[in-house]
Amino acid sequence: MNRKTWSLLCVVLMVVGIAGCGVMMVDSGSPKASSAGGGSGAYTHVIVGDTDYYRNSPSQSSPSDGSFVKGTKVTLVRKAGSYSLVRSVDGVEAYVSTGSIRAAN
Fold first, then answer.
1. pLDDT tens across 75-89, in order?
2. Which whole number is the average pLDDT over 45-73?
């Protein structure tokens, strides 16, 4: 690889790294996942099957921080590629696979 290509690659990796910092989130402090149908409050989506969640980023490079059970009511905060940031009615804010949620009826 020549010097110009190497420099361009380094710049691209730095930009991607900095942009990735924008998806970090603040820990909500609640270690419990919502139970199916539990809690009260507004929600927009439902977990369609038992699924792992990740509090800090939509990555599986480390063990999951917990799991939601099928039927857990959540609010969609934002989509992040193949993952979505959700907040359960119990206050757990975490990333889950977008395929593991569906819009509430």
1. 999 998 899 999 999
2. 92
Domain total of the chain: 1
The total number of residues shown for the chain amounts to: 105
Is 76 a member of any domain? yes
Q: Is the pTM of this model over 0.70?
A: no
Q: Which residue range is the domain that position 98 belongs to?
A: 26-103
Q: Note whether residue 86 is domain-resident.
A: yes
